[in-house]
Amino acid sequence: MMERSGVATKTPHGVHSNMTDFPRSSPTIGIAMAAYQAADTIGATLRAILAQSRPPARTVVVIDGPDPDTEEVVRAFGPEIECLVLPQNTGGPGGPRNAAVTHLRASGDVDAYCFFDADDIPYPRFLEVATDLMIRHPECPIIYTGFDFWHPPEDPPTPEGSMGSVHPWTLEDYLEHSGLKLLSFSLIRSDSCRTVRASGLPFDPELRRNQDYDLTVRLLAEAPAMATDWRGAAYRILSTSHSASGVDAWLSRLLATESLGRYFNASDRQELVAMMDRYAGSGLRRAARHLWIRGNAGDRRAALRLLLDDVVKRRDPRSVAVLLTLGLGVDVKAARMSARDHRKIGRSKPG
User: Fold this and answer.
1) Average model confidence (pLDDT) across the chain
2) Is the pLDDT confidence value at 153 over 70?
3) Residue 130 is part of which domain span?
4) What is the DSSP string of 325-348?
5) What is the pLDDT of residues 282-298, one digit of tens each?
6) Is there a contact between 254 and 221 (Cβ–Cβ < 8 Å)?
7) In this structure, are strands 225-236 and 166-169 parallel, antiparallel, or unpaired?
8) Alpha carbons 202 and 211: distance in angstroms, whole number
9) Is 140 left (phi over 0), alpha (psi -120 to 50) or beta?
10) Segment (H or E) for 266
11) pLDDT, tens only, 168-181
12) Final residue before a domain boundary, out of 238, 253, 277
């Protein structure tokens, strides 16, 4: 573990904390990371974790099936990084993350989990700032920081020194601005994760995509999060990632939102069912716009089919309007969107 000077520094709220000797009541944080074919990136992520001003209690990396190159990089960090390898690839991060959580629980658990991806770069004070907020807001299941977009091969952004504002982050906030706060750059109370599904584990291993979205909606449906605008990490953007494709991202979001609607319907939470239905329609229209813009063979026919099916299913006049404006070439939102990066869409508010 890196040595620290023990010099007292100011937290975001102006309260002094010692960088070496945190009080015994300070929450314990466990990093639960999924990795697969990450040999080129995970080393930088693990070095950033070991360089934290407020180090985690434990860091567990679960490799999603045999991957000798990634395993070699992880095991080179020695006993400070616990490494597990699943017998076969599960196809998504949910299963490996659940395995990491199970491993943490087997030896006493921690107070909160952090689910960094294997290519994220947390800045040195990420855990310090997030833990301070968690202490101050025990009612919140999630504590968020902001983040910087990082487009390699550019150098990672420089961490900012000044602290941003702190504010609640509700389910409605998340659904309208889901790209502004990411689960990767948050702390999640471990006891909250035990109640989101019958297994007692945070993630649905059957979800290959949008597993973060699924967990976030379930948690925020119970209580708001707390968020700081302070940017605590660098989020690596790769042109080959799933989230870089607007078509794939919004079709996945549509399916996940419809699944959440069924989940809330099972407990007769009709207000949340109606909310999920509205946002499923929004995701469908965004996917249709991206299909139309991409314009590969069959894309525009698929876009029209999506919209027509939605008109029949939801009888939503907004889908009729998008159908007409796309066909006439006058859809203003489509003109502003990038077919490659769904983050350029802006707000996720139904429309």
Assistant:
1) 87
2) yes
3) 8-238
4) HHHHT--HHHHH--SS-GGGG---
5) 999 999 999 988 888 98
6) no
7) antiparallel
8) 9
9) beta
10) helix 246-266
11) 999 999 999 988 99
12) 238
Name residue 212's amino acid. D
Residue 1 in any domain: the answer is: no
Residue type, 1: M
pLDDT digit string, tens, across residues 89-137: 999 999 999 999 999 999 889 999 999 999 999 999 999 999 999 999 9
Q: What is d(CA 228, CA 232) in angstroms, rounded to the nearest whole number?
A: 9
Q: What's the token pair of residue 72?
A: 């070699």
The residue type found at 121 is I
Q: What is the DSSP letter of 77?
A: T
**Same-domain status, 204 and 262:** no
Residues in the chain: 351
287 vs 326: CA distance, rounded Å: 13
| Cβ contact 112:190 at 8 Å | yes
Residue % of the chain over a pLDDT of 70: 86
The per-residue pLDDT for 268 is 98
Within 8 A by CB and 6+ apart from 311, the residues are: 319, 320, 323
